[in-house]
Amino acid sequence: MQYYGAKPEKVCRIGDNEWQVEGKHEEELYFVTLQASCTCDISLSGNVHCPLCSVCPYSWNCTCLDNRAGISCFHKHAMKLYGNAMALRSLSGAHTSTPERYESVPDFGRPHWHMWNHPRKQ
Fold it and tell me: N or C: less crowded end of the chain, CB within 10 Å?
């Protein structure tokens, strides 16, 4: 995740429920989209959400080859951690002249932060 932390512009929101995530190579471009609201069990034993970003692997889909049921790919994590850092832009790649900030990436599921003893990282 350090790659996207140093280059948050590689993760751009392109719609209400869609993000464009650029790969490490120029020709790599992936799309992360919301498929459904989270229906995961809130108990620790049934929790499959990431403890760092709380992305639900069943609610989100990615166009990469690493997209698997029950496992969040690198791009889903990048979307949740860095997807609100850049302005809404079109697929053509045009940036707005004054960057807009999004308050947060929607979590469409129940928050799971209370289950861990460490503070939420910003």
Answer: C
Encode pLDDT of 39-51 as tens digits: 887 665 467 888 8
Measured between alpha carbons, how far is 61 from 117 in angstroms, rounded to an integer?
A: 29
pLDDT in tens, 8-66: 889 999 998 999 999 988 889 999 999 988 888 766 546 788 888 888 888 999 999 98
pTM (predicted TM-score): 0.64
Q: Kindly state the tokens that stand for 105.
A: 């990436």
Burial of 59 per CB tally in 10 Å (0-12, 13-18, 19+) = buried
| Residue-range domain boundaries for the chain | 1-37+49-89
Q: How many CB atoms lie within 10 A of CB 85?
A: 19
